[in-house]
Amino acid sequence: MNATLVLPELATSSFWHDESGFLDIYDVRLFIKTLKYDVQIVMSIPKISAKGNTKNLRAHQILPPRYAPVTWYRTVAMEKIKKHGAIYLTPFSHRLAEEIDDPELQRLRCRVNYHALRFKPNIMKTSSEIVNKLHSKAISCQFILGLSWISLPGKRFVYKERRLIGKFPLIPEEVGLILRAMGFDNTTRIYLAPSKLFAGDRLMITKPFEAMFPHLENHSTVGPGTGMLEENTQGLAWSAVDYMVCLLSDIFIPTYDGPSNFAHNLMGHRLYRGFQTTIAPDRKALARIFIDREEGRASGYEERVRQLMFNAHFGGPRKRIHPESFYTNSWPECFCQKEARSNADRCPPDDMDGVIESQFQSEEDIEVSIFN
Fold first, then answer.
1. Would you give the distance in Å from CA 291 to the centre of its chain?
2. Which domains does the chain have, with CATH numbers?
């Protein structure tokens, strides 16, 4: 499109009741620097001058189709930009097709997600301090397990039907039974993200889970450190901390992975960082086992759970299988190869920024020479 990107806005007020903006959560300087060779980024829409007058340019709001192809942006969106000067794409969740027949665009997605989008230093420091404190407490077990819950206040579901098709989150007791079947004992230190479950939902009673695994932590239970955020910090910043703690944990288990961007992105990010151990339970297959147990057919259920879980993927490299999300598994597009046949697939040199800088400097020198 050859268009300029205005610093994104976060749609946070409806769910988080939080007025935090992109500037409050992300390291904007790093965001702009990392993408400077991909797209020009400005802090706000510039003013325009016409006939000696200066006025603000108002962006024209348009709704992109869900999973729109690249051609939609190069045609429809581009026509709107030419007509109005600026466009405002909202909402923008899942507004670009995940399977794109352009490896470089897919790699750009990973540069944005895993390199350009970094939380502000105070959030990163808080997350690091929490992980260090958790590790210092985990003397008897040498790992930290990050566990993501999903909170859907006010939502009502037909529990049994959705459970049988794998469309209902694992409840705390089920998570405890899974972990115990896999060999985790009651010394395991577990970090909960977010710290609140289904408020008031009888299914989400945590006492059985707490009895099996008493060492439960969240960002509120970990003692404050020098870089910690204040407790009155708004919700989005603490969610960013939860994300980072789960990213840095030794093992991560999502209790639900759709449509939660939190779990999807975490699984993809952990894969990208070096195939960190991520355990994604097959909720549909597990439902039948747990129903048998609840109906009195409990014989051998633990072995059935164990066999099912140890046949699952643990975060290693594997190609996506539809409908798996690109954000959950960006293999192989975003992974370079040391001995690749194609230059496009080879790993870049360690000093990639320096190489690019020198290339751009050479181009500028050529332009100056031609001009002279």
1. 31
2. 5-116 (no CATH), 121-310 (3.40.50), 341-372 (no CATH)
pLDDT digits (tens, 9 = 90+) for 44-100: 998 877 666 777 888 999 999 999 999 999 999 999 999 999 999 988 888 999 999
CB atoms within 10 A of CB 19: 11
Question: Which residue has tokens 């459970």?
Answer: 163
Render pLDDT for 214-253 as a digit per residue (tens, 0 to 9). 998 888 888 666 566 765 566 788 889 999 999 999 999 9
- d(CA 132, CA 249) in angstroms, rounded, equals 10
Are the C-beta atoms of 256 and 153 separated by less than 8 Å? no
Residue 368, classed as helix, strand or coil, is helix
Structure tokens at 199: 């408020």
- Other Cβ atoms closer than 10 A to 117: 19
Residue 258 corresponds to which tokens in the numbers above?
């759709």
Joined tokens for residue 193: 């993200």
- In sequence order, what DSSP letters do the residues of 45-102 get, joined into one string? PPEEEETTEEEEPPPEEE-PPTT--HHHIIIIIHHHHHHHS-EEE-S-TT-S-S--S-
What residue ranges in 130-281 does DSSP mark as E strands? 144-148, 189-193, 216-217, 251-254
Q: How far apart are CA 175 and CA 79, in angstroms?
A: 50
pTM of the model: 0.84
Tell me: cis bond preceding 208? Omega within 30 of 0 counts: no
Q: How far apart are CA 259 and CA 117, in angstroms?
A: 21
Residues 6+ apart with CB under 8 A from 111: 34, 35, 38
Task: Kindly give the interhelix angle for 172-181 and 301-310, rounded to the nearest 10 degrees.
Answer: 80
Secondary structure class of 339 (helix, strand, coil): coil
Which is nearest to 257 in space by CA: 290, 281, 240? 281
Rounded to whole angstroms, the maximal C-alpha distance in the chain is 88
- Two structure tokens written together for 229: 């955020």
Count CB neighbours of 21 within 10 A. 15
Query: What does residue 340 show for φ and ψ, rounded to 5 degrees?
Result: -95, 145
